[in-house]
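Sanity check. The docking grid for NDP depends on where the pocket ends up, so I'm generating a full predicted complex first rather than guessing from homology. Inputs follow.
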Amino acid sequence: MIVLKGAEVSAKIKAEVQRILENSEGQVPRLAIVRVGERPDDLSYERGAMKKMEAFGLEAKSYGFPETISDAEFKEEFKKINEDPEVTGILVLKPLPKHICERDIENMMDPGKDLDGISPVNIAKVFAGDSSGFAPCTAEAVVEVLKANGIPIAGKRAVIVGRSMVVGKPLAMLLMKENATVTVCHTKTVDLPGTCRNGEILVAAAGRAKMLDGEYVGPGAVVIDVGINADGNGKLCGDVDFESIEGKAAMATPVPGGVGAVTTAVLARHLALAALGAGQ
Ligand code: NDP
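Predicted complex below; grid placement will be based on this.
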């Protein structure tokens, strides 16, 4: 089984970002990372994103707010960031606390700064197959892993486990744009193992530690693991039981070291493109 490493895909995206930056004369693009509270997974994602922006020659600034901030106060603060001409692009770490209306923030977000595709304009573009906006970074990262490794998508049966608005649904649209035949699975899917085995490309985005074992993987499948979970010992793991698919899958992404590194690289590319006015 070939292990598809995220670092190699990320390096290719870095070269692309450098070309974009060479052609843009303005200031260094700046990312605003907006966080409410101090959830460990948010802090870890934030650290990773900050490091990646720096490594790609971009700037990033964290805007952290206390968990106790009111809905009205947060909207006021978000408005300032959204309208700040020094801010090229924005990443809001989600989910926001329950007392803050996420939908309002999505609606307020300037589509030209919306690097993770949460605004209605960018979502509509993804669903319309219009690539002029910003798709959710993780969904785009999956397609990037396939393309960067020369894995054909057109005409292939792609099976996605998960139908969230950040991964499953937008990914279904992106793969369909690449002419895959897409099946989207969820908790009510009957015969999940059989449906997954039918996939020539299998994407796991359920958020269930090591749920997809060898029984879910057809011979020669390409398995992309989006999951970020902790196993019984608190160790980081994906949705795929990596060892048990050995001998079945032809290729697979590991966790850690797979899609996660590509997601932040895609975020960096979106930031560089936002500086050129993409997504406006
Ligand atoms: P959500 O919890 O929003 O969605 C999970 C989806 O998986 C739902 O559609 C759910 O179905 C489905 N699902 C859950 N359990 C099962 C099951 N037993 N059988 C079939 N379907 C199931 O998660 P996200 O989409 O936000 O994230 C998914 C995973 O990806 C998480 O591990 C998350 O940490 C990770 N992630 C990784 C990123 C990266 O950069 N690598 C970025 C974002 C997320 P239903 O709709 O029926 O409830």
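Relevant for the grid: Residues 6-23 form the longest helix (18 residues).
Also worth noting: Residues 138, 161-164, 166-168, 185-189, 192, 205-208, 211, 226-229, 259-260, 263 surround NDP (CB under 6 Å).
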